[in-house]
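The pair is listed for reference:
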Amino acid sequence: MIRTFTEHEIASVLTYEKLIPAMERALVAFSAGRVRQPVRSLLTVEEDQRFLGLMPAAMPEGMGAKLVCFYPKNAALGLPTHLATIALFDTETGAPLAVLDGRLITEMRTAAVSAAVTRHVVPERAGVLALVGAGVQAQAHLEALRHVCRFDEVRVWSHTREHAQRFAQSNGAIATELETAMRGADVIVTATLSREALVRGEWLKAGAHVNAIGACRPTWRELDDAAIVGSTLIVDSREAALIESGDVILSKAQIFAEAGEVFAGTCRPPRGATTIFKSLGLAVEDIAAARLVYDALTAS
C-alpha cells in the first residue's frame, strides 16, 4: 500500500540532528558518482514569476522525484514561494512506497545542507551571524546553524524593514541595515528573491562564510563579482551551478569544490579563506530526506 504523509506527520519525525548528517552522506554519494540524477527540468509557466520543476534521483537507499512549484510572487500574498510533492520508490523493485508533502522537507533540507557546509569550513569560534532576508529560509537557517555554531549575535536585514523587525523580536536578533549586518559577520546567509546583486565583496570579513540560497535562475544575482571571484566557491553540483546559477555564470567564477567533496575530505578550502556555498538544491537531498521520514514513520 502506498503511504501518504502530511507536513504535520513529517514535522513530527524530521529533526536537524538526523537531517544534517543525512545530507552529508547523500552529497558525498552524489559527488562520488553513486547517484543517478539529471539537472532539474524547469517548466516556465509565467516568465520570472511561476515555475514547475521536476527533480528525479536514484541511489541505493531510495529512488523518486520531487515536483516543485516555485512561485516568487506568492511572497506578496503571504503564501509559500515553494510548494512540492515527493514520490518515493523502492530502488530494487521499483515499487512505489509513499507520497510526501515536500514543502517542509525542501525548507529543512536546504538549511541542513548549509549547516553541514558551515560546520566543515567555519572556524569553531563563529560569533556573528547575518541573515539577508527574513522569510522561511532565514528562520530555517537560524535553527539549523545553531546546531553547528554558537552565535553571540544574530543580525537580520530584509527589503521590508517590518519583516526584519518582526523576525528580530521573535528570535532575539538585531534588525539593521544591509551593510551593517554584513560587516564583521562570521557567517552570512543570503535568502532573498533578489534578481540583482545585494552583497558586495568589500563588505565581507576575511575568512567569512556565505551560504547563498537565493538567485536560482541563470540571470538572477544575490552576490556581486567581487564577492564571488574573491572567495573560495563551493557548490552542491558543478553541472547545475553552470546551468542554473546566475551568481556563478555571470561572474565566471572558478568552482573550487562540490559540497560532497568537502564532506569527504577530498577537497579542503585553504585555512582562513573566505568561502561561499552556492546552494541550488538537489533531488538527492529530497529523496534522502524523504527516505529518512519514511523509515521513521513506518518503523513501528
